[in-house]
Amino acid sequence: MGCANCGGGTPNGCKNNGTCSSGGCSKLEVFDWLANMSLPTGQSPYDIFEIRFKNSRKGFYRNTKKLPLVTGDVVVVEGAPGYDIGVISVSGELARIQVKKKAPGFKPVEAKKILRKALQEDIDKWIEARSLEKDVMFRARTLAVNLGLQMKISDVEYQGDLSKATFYYTAEGRVDFRQLIKDMAEAFKIRIEMKQIGARQEASRLGGIGSCGRELCCSTWLTDFRSVSTSAARYQQLSLNPQKLAGQCGKLKCCLNYELDMYMDALKAFPKGDLRLRTEKGNATHVKTDVFKKQMWYAYEGEAAMGSGLIPLAPERVSEIKALNKEGKKPADLNDYVEEVFVQEPDYTNVVGQDSLNRFEHVFKKKRNKKRRKGPQNKGKNPQTSNSSQKKKPNHQQKQEGGSKNLGPNNKKDQPKSQVNDKKRSNNNRSRNNRNTNKKTNEADKKA
Questions:
Q1: What is the DSSP string of 384-421?
Q2: What is the number of other CB atoms lying within 10 angstroms of the CB of residue 365?
Q3: Which of 49, 158, 218, 252 is spaced 20 to 30 Å from 272 by Cα?
Q4: Stated pTM of the model
Q5: DSSP state, 252?
Q6: What digits encode the pLDDT tens for the residues 391-443?
Q7: pLDDT tens digit string along 278-291?
């Protein structure tokens, strides 16, 4: 059994091994890569299961009744008080690895139990609880605003038996919500539990799309939230723009730490850019460092900067200039130390022209020129004359025109130009021959 969103009761994902992050039902999905491996002979399967509840909340429960459970089954587990309903996300040997990783001090004896597989009545009650959560959250926000509390209620989670609701909120300081709990218990007629979470935990529960176009890391796979400082952006040569560096939670993006170690190792081969380079032309200050191209960019100060721009230097050249400055020597110009970079052209030949970005420009130009040459046919004509020419002609004129038209193969419009020219020549020769014969007959008549 999957969840309410799964078609046919089976999880959307890879066979029956769980759900993938791209097509799963909830957040922090897990792919069971140990599902197809058989256990050694005589070893019983691991009886601890990881159960997933709403959003990113998970817990470990024990199968004391040895029920035949697989990943994706909806089960009823012990609650505090009552019972709760969740979905099995990890089972078998992968659950053993998850327990060692996430709960090192976990004691199986003290674990809560899995009561049974969920019946249809339990699932209907569970779906009803999910449908009530949104309305309850908005009403709870209204109660908090009426009391003037500086807090934000971001999510509500009902227990599977509809006996308790957990309200997740964020606040900058400590909040006295004793009166709020009384008001909510009176309004909703259930047991109330309040949990304060941070801004990153709130984003992981609610989810969303980041500036990279993908789902948030904290809602798909990231579980440990490490501190991120602005020094991570400085090491990576990023502009300290809070709008670009902050995520949806309002804090610095967690992805700033992903490549930080690589940048710090690469920057060890670069000299420090805090010292100025002294030359005969003037002093130059460090502007930026390109880790991938292994270049350090310098710019002259004052009048020497006119027309010079940024000068790229290799780290070895910068070390040489600094060594000369320590000895009291000044090079003539930094441009003398610039290394030319030769770009290697590809070995293949461009036969089709697929690399050129303007390969279709001449085609469009020809089409435009043809359209301009043709132009509108009736341009410059008097509309009255054009309308009068389109009027119907009398019947006797139509008969004469119809008789003069030759619709057979001798029509000049249907014949090629070469045949038309040959016929014209033959007609001219016949007329000349007729003229000559007429002259000869006239001369013979005169002699007679």
A1: HHHHHHTSPPPHHHHHHHHHH---STT-TTTS-HHHHH
A2: 10
A3: 252
A4: 0.61
A5: B
A6: 444 454 444 444 444 444 444 444 555 555 566 666 666 666 666 666 666 66
A7: 998 889 999 888 89
